Fold DUF485 domain-containing protein.
Amino acid sequence: MHDDLVQKIKADPSYHKLVSARSRYGWTLTWMMMAVYYGFILLIAFDKELLATRIGNGVMTWGMPMGLFVIVFTVLITGIYVRRANGEFDEHTAAIRARVQP
Protein backbone atom coordinates (compact mmCIF):
# COMPACT_ATOMS: atom_id res chain seq x y z
CA MET A 1 0.00 0.00 0.00
CA HIS A 2 2.80 2.41 0.88
CA ASP A 3 4.63 1.70 -2.38
CA ASP A 4 1.45 2.40 -4.33
CA LEU A 5 1.17 5.84 -2.71
CA VAL A 6 4.82 6.59 -3.48
CA GLN A 7 4.28 5.64 -7.13
CA LYS A 8 1.21 7.90 -7.36
CA ILE A 9 3.18 10.81 -5.94
CA LYS A 10 6.10 10.21 -8.31
CA ALA A 11 3.69 10.11 -11.27
CA ASP A 12 2.10 13.45 -10.36
CA PRO A 13 3.35 16.28 -12.63
CA SER A 14 2.97 18.79 -9.79
CA TYR A 15 5.42 16.75 -7.74
CA HIS A 16 8.04 17.04 -10.47
CA LYS A 17 7.48 20.80 -10.67
CA LEU A 18 7.80 21.08 -6.88
CA VAL A 19 11.02 19.06 -6.78
CA SER A 20 12.48 21.10 -9.64
CA ALA A 21 11.54 24.46 -8.11
CA ARG A 22 12.77 23.49 -4.65
CA SER A 23 16.07 22.17 -6.00
CA ARG A 24 16.66 25.20 -8.20
CA TYR A 25 15.88 27.56 -5.31
CA GLY A 26 18.10 25.65 -2.90
CA TRP A 27 21.02 25.61 -5.32
CA THR A 28 20.62 29.32 -6.08
CA LEU A 29 20.84 30.17 -2.39
CA THR A 30 23.74 27.73 -1.99
CA TRP A 31 25.72 29.41 -4.76
CA MET A 32 25.00 32.83 -3.26
CA MET A 33 26.26 31.65 0.13
CA MET A 34 29.34 30.06 -1.40
CA ALA A 35 30.15 33.27 -3.29
CA VAL A 36 29.95 35.34 -0.10
CA TYR A 37 31.87 32.85 2.04
CA TYR A 38 34.61 32.01 -0.44
CA GLY A 39 34.85 35.67 -1.46
CA PHE A 40 35.60 36.50 2.16
CA ILE A 41 38.16 33.67 2.41
CA LEU A 42 39.83 34.81 -0.82
CA LEU A 43 39.93 38.35 0.54
CA ILE A 44 41.67 37.05 3.65
CA ALA A 45 44.16 35.15 1.50
CA PHE A 46 44.97 37.83 -1.05
CA ASP A 47 44.20 41.24 0.48
CA LYS A 48 45.04 41.17 4.17
CA GLU A 49 45.93 44.85 4.04
CA LEU A 50 42.34 45.81 3.22
CA LEU A 51 40.98 43.75 6.09
CA ALA A 52 43.60 45.20 8.46
CA THR A 53 42.79 48.81 7.47
CA ARG A 54 41.31 50.68 10.40
CA ILE A 55 37.92 52.33 10.15
CA GLY A 56 38.32 55.92 11.34
CA ASN A 57 40.46 56.58 14.41
CA GLY A 58 39.22 53.59 16.42
CA VAL A 59 40.58 50.09 16.69
CA MET A 60 38.01 48.43 14.40
CA THR A 61 39.27 47.19 11.05
CA TRP A 62 37.34 46.38 7.87
CA GLY A 63 37.70 42.67 8.59
CA MET A 64 35.32 42.83 11.54
CA PRO A 65 32.23 44.19 9.73
CA MET A 66 32.97 42.02 6.70
CA GLY A 67 33.14 38.91 8.88
CA LEU A 68 29.93 39.96 10.62
CA PHE A 69 28.31 40.43 7.20
CA VAL A 70 29.13 36.81 6.31
CA ILE A 71 27.46 35.61 9.51
CA VAL A 72 24.40 37.83 9.10
CA PHE A 73 24.09 36.86 5.42
CA THR A 74 24.10 33.19 6.42
CA VAL A 75 21.30 33.73 8.94
CA LEU A 76 19.26 35.80 6.45
CA ILE A 77 19.60 33.32 3.61
CA THR A 78 18.59 30.49 5.93
CA GLY A 79 15.55 32.47 7.05
CA ILE A 80 14.59 33.21 3.46
CA TYR A 81 14.74 29.52 2.56
CA VAL A 82 12.79 28.44 5.66
CA ARG A 83 10.08 31.02 5.01
CA ARG A 84 9.55 29.83 1.45
CA ALA A 85 9.81 26.15 2.42
CA ASN A 86 7.25 26.52 5.22
CA GLY A 87 4.93 28.54 3.00
CA GLU A 88 4.89 27.83 -0.71
CA PHE A 89 6.64 24.44 -0.73
CA ASP A 90 4.58 23.04 2.14
CA GLU A 91 1.35 24.21 0.48
CA HIS A 92 2.29 22.43 -2.75
CA THR A 93 3.27 19.31 -0.81
CA ALA A 94 -0.07 19.27 1.03
CA ALA A 95 -1.98 19.74 -2.25
CA ILE A 96 -0.12 16.84 -3.87
CA ARG A 97 -0.69 14.65 -0.82
CA ALA A 98 -4.41 15.47 -0.81
CA ARG A 99 -4.72 14.74 -4.52
CA VAL A 100 -3.07 11.31 -4.43
CA GLN A 101 -4.41 9.89 -1.14
CA PRO A 102 -7.57 7.79 -1.40
